[in-house]
Specification:
Blueprint lengths: L12 H6 L3 H32 L1 H9 L4 H28 L1
């Protein structure tokens, strides 16, 4: 055949895409994960502080006759709204 003298190296897709930057890429991914973990812990801490401040409001609502399911539904709704808005903010930031 015409092309019998050619040698074609077989390289995996991972080696072709990542190549020699595998270690710096792994370090960068670890750094991003640590920053994300810090952000998640900060948001959890803020929500815990907010819940502590709102203890009086919850006690008043309970004293006025709100049942536990209604209070839980309100807290879950507020948390879900916060999650959706922050997720939407991230999507907008990444699209820029």
């Amino acid at each position: 055949t015409v092309y019998s003298h050619l040698d074609l190296p077989v390289v995996s897709i991972r080696d072709a895409l990542v190549g020699s930057v595998r270690t710096p890429l792994a370090v960068m991914i670890c750094a991003v994960c640590v920053v994300l973990l810090i952000a998640v812990v900060n948001v959890a801490n803020l929500m815990l502080a907010r819940a502590t401040v709102r203890q009086r409001e919850i006690a008043v609502r309970s004293a006025l006759g709100a049942d536990g399911a209604r209070l839980v539904k309100q807290m879950l709704t507020e948390s879900a709204l916060l999650a959706v808005l922050s997720g939407g903010g991230w999507v907008c930031c990444w699209r820029l």
